[in-house]
Automatic annotation (TrEMBL), chain A:
Keywords: ATP-binding, Cell inner membrane, Cell membrane, Membrane, Nucleotide-binding, Translocase, Transport. It is a peripheral membrane protein. It comes from Paenibacillus pini JCM 16418. PANTHER family: ATPASE AAA-TYPE CORE DOMAIN-CONTAINING PROTEIN, OLIGOPEPTIDE TRANSPORT ATP-BINDING PROTEIN APPD. The keyword Transport applies. This is Oligopeptide transport ATP-binding protein OppD.
From TrEMBL, chain B:
It comes from Paenibacillus pini JCM 16418. This is Oligopeptide transport ATP-binding protein OppF. One of its GO terms (molecular function) is ATP hydrolysis activity. Residues 6-256 form the ABC transporter domain. Pfam families: ABC_tran, oligo_HPY. Belongs to the ABC transporter superfamily. Keywords: ATP-binding, Nucleotide-binding, Transport. It comes from the Bacteria. One of its GO terms (biological process) is peptide transport. PANTHER family: ABC TRANSPORTER, ATP-BINDING PROTEIN, TRANSPORT ATP-BINDING PROTEIN. The lineage of its organism: Bacteria, Bacillati, Bacillota, Bacilli, Bacillales. InterPro entries: AAA+_ATPase (IPR003593), ABC_transp_ATP-bind (IPR050319), ABC_transporter-like_ATP-bd (IPR003439), ABC_transporter-like_CS (IPR017871), Oligopep_ABC_C (IPR013563), P-loop_NTPase (IPR027417).
């Protein structure tokens, strides 16, 4: 196995609010291999976006703070890095695509200016060189006449176009890791298909690793090699895309997969997980999913199970699978 | 064939584009451009399409929450497009709507009790005791408890708020509910709870639904018949099984092929459409889909294809099916 390009260990990102300390990301471990597409799935509030923002250290501080843990990118822990050092990494070797391209593009600058800026800053190119490079990038993301949109402002473009511009900007410096946070959620299915196709092509052709954050299981099944399922600030299951969809272990993953309607089959009734996601707080005890779980046992309410490996490359955080290894730490 | 509850004939909704000092009208946004369909009693009729295709405008124009520009709507054989404002208000007892965003459609200053009581007062349930009984029954039916009645919308989660929205729509025991993207804002696990609830209510109260959505897998699960819209027009109507097994219109084919399936072993044969949806202010001449259609012909750029019956209740508006008879 090659060395992971990104390794997150026991990351805790907490928010300090009027209502107390909120453990949005509560001790997660993740890794991404070079050239791999890792899917991070979960419902709103499970901490998937906070995880991705933590990797780029974009957590608003205060109220947020990375309390503990390490984020090792290419052998170097980036948690203690200064802002000026982070700036050399962002948009250069790690870049990010956000859900809403309208609010992440600057409305006051033209598309060409914004993409060009990244190239000038990180690659030290002149305006003229940056312009040529920008046109290349726009062509690469499937914009047929890049000259025409170079001088346009973001509000003049459609949602799909803006997301392409966002992607062109994020890949302009050939990053080794692209973090895509719900890149297609705001788009229509036919445009979503175009954008996913583009991300897959970049992954295959340039070997760019992708961390794809989404709540859409269809997108995950189609795009990812490996998947981490998050619930209430913790990774509850992690494995290959095949493991997760064909042999899910954690009751939450099982419920999630069963509750999605599918195109290829007809069911009378959908499975539904009862109840709601718990409100995060420091005083939560036991397994976060216990209140909604069909298999809940007394010990689930007392202690948090460990994320333990069940099969090669397939781990799960559930007491159901830990009866035999009582001594596991 | 079962009884028709709602019939829509040549419905149009044009929004004027006004510019300049005197608000002169410079053309129209044709949000809904001449559509006709009928909904049978007890069925779930799906309206699908991408953003801007006019599906929500259609839903609102049916209830006259926005006035249609042209066309007729019949409910139980009675034309409701000609009714006075007062007549329409009475008519809405039978026709209700559930909105996408349950937060912005509930008044934050009203308790659940008041939200559910208001329609009863407006529609003349004068006995306080009867109102209370009906409210208590309503919250139970949608899976909330009596203790929730004195809370306010912000104290509920998204799924619970959508249940309140559904309870409010049910308060007057309507015959038809227009559900406008009722589960799009919800998380997967909550979405399935609300879908199951809608189905339970349908069988319990014999409701008819018009289900507006962009998520094709949800529509496949819940609907009996589906109409696909593109740029304000209906391009295809069919029974669910037929539409999903044998889509005829090139747009429907591309749309269905674009849905990612939550199964890593299924590798869809995807038709990736080029380009973007044109603006409804400036729709192409002829077939609205001619700018993106992989099978475009010369006639598509000049003549708008009518909806033609291609057999067994399946209709398609496409020049590829010229042999079939026109509908309406």
């Amino acid at each position: 196995m090659s060395k992971p390009i990104l390794e997150i260990k026991d990351l805790r990102t907490h928010f300090f609010t009027d209502r107390g300390e909120i453990p949005a990301v509560d001790g997660i471990d993740l890794y991404i291999q070079p050239g791999e597409v890792l899917g991070v799935v979960g419902e709103s509030g499970c901490g998937k976006s906070v995880t991705s923002l933590s990797v780029l250290k974009l957590i608003p501080q205060p109220p947020g703070k990375i309390v503990s843990g390490s984020i090792v990118f290419k052998g170097k822990d980036i948690v203690p890095l200064k802002e000026s050092e982070m700036r050399k990494i962002r948009g250069n070797s790690i870049s990010m695509v956000f859900q809403e391209p309208m609010s992440s593009l600057n409305p006051l600058f033209t598309v060409g200016h914004q993409i060009g800026e990244t190239i000038r800053l990180h690659r030290g190119k002149s305006h003229k060189e940056a312009r040529i490079h920008t046109l290349d990038m726009l062509r690469k993301v499937g914009i047929a006449s890049p000259d025409a949109i170079l001088n346009e402002y973001p509000h003049r473009l459609s949602g799909g176009m803006r997301q392409r511009v966002m992607i062109a900007m994020s890949i302009a410096c050939s990053p080794e890791l692209l973090i895509a946070d719900e890149p297609t959620t705001a788009l229509d299915v036919t445009i979503q298909a175009q954008i996913l196709d583009l991300i897959r092509r970049l992954n295959e052709e340039q070997g760019m690793a992708v961390m794809l954050i989404t709540h859409d299981l269809g997108v995950v099944a189609e795009m990812c090699h490996r998947v981490a399922v998050m619930y209430a600030g913790k990774v509850v299951e992690e494995g290959s895309v095949h493991d997760i969809f064909k042999n899910p272990l954690h009751p939450y993953t099982q419920g999630l997969i069963q509750s999605v309607p599918r195109m290829s089959e007809t069911r009378e009734r959908l499975y539904s997980i009862p109840g709601n996601v718990p409100v995060l707080s420091m005083s939560l005890r036991g397994c976060r999913f216990a209140a909604r779980c069909e298999h809940v046992m007394p010990r689930c309410l007392e202690a948090i199970p460990h994320l333990s490996q069940q099969e090669e490359g397939h781990s799960c955080r559930c007491w159901l699978y830990e009866s035999t290894q009582e001594d596991a730490v | 064939m079962s009884e028709t509850l709602l019939e829509v004939q040549h419905l149009k909704k044009y929004f004027p584009i006004q510019k300049g000092l005197w608000n002169k009208t410079h053309g129209h946004v044709k949000a809904v451009d001449d559509i006709s369909f009928s909904v049978h009693k007890g069925e779930t009729f799906g309206l699908v399409g991408e953003s801007g295709c006019g599906k929500s405008t259609t839903g609102r124009a049916l209830l006259r929450l926005i006035e249609p520009s042209e066309g007729k709507v019949f409910f139980e054989g009675k034309e409701i497009t000609g009714l006075s404002a007062e007549g329409m208000r009475k008519q809405r007892r039978d026709m209700q709507i559930v909105f996408q965003d349950p937060y912005s459609s509930l008044d934050p200053r009203h308790s659940v009790q008041r939200i559910l009581e208001e329609p009863l007062i407006v529609h003349g349930v004068t006995s306080r005791k009867e109102r209370q009984q009906r409210i208590e029954r309503l919250v139970e039916v949608v899976g909330l408890s009596r203790s929730h009645l004195h809370r306010y919308p912000h104290q509920f989660s998204g799924g619970q708020r959508q249940r309140i929205g559904i309870a409010r729509a049910l308060a007057l025991q309507p015959k038809l509910i227009v559900a406008d993207e009722p589960v799009s804002a919800l998380d997967v696990s909550i979405q399935s709870q609300v879908i199951n609830l809608l189905q339970d209510l349908q069988s319990e109260f014999g409701l008819t639904y018009i289900f507006i959505a962009h998520d094709l897998s949800v529509v496949k699960h819940i609907c009996d018949r589906v109409a696909v819209m593109y740029l304000g027009r209906i391009v295809e109507i069919a029974d669910k099984e037929k539409l999903y097994a044998d889509p005829q219109h090139p747009y429907t084919q591309a749309l269905l092929s674009a849905v990612p399936e939550p199964d890593p072993d299924v590798k869809p044969k995807r038709i990736i459409l080029q380009g973007e949806v044109p603006s409804p202010a400036n729709a192409p001449i002829g077939c609205a889909f001619n700018t993106r259609c992989p099978k475009v012909m010369d006639v598509c750029r000049t003549d708008r294809p009518p909806l033609r019956d291609t057999g067994e209740g399946h209709s398609t508006a496409c020049h590829l099916y010229t042999g079939a008879a026109e509908v309406v």
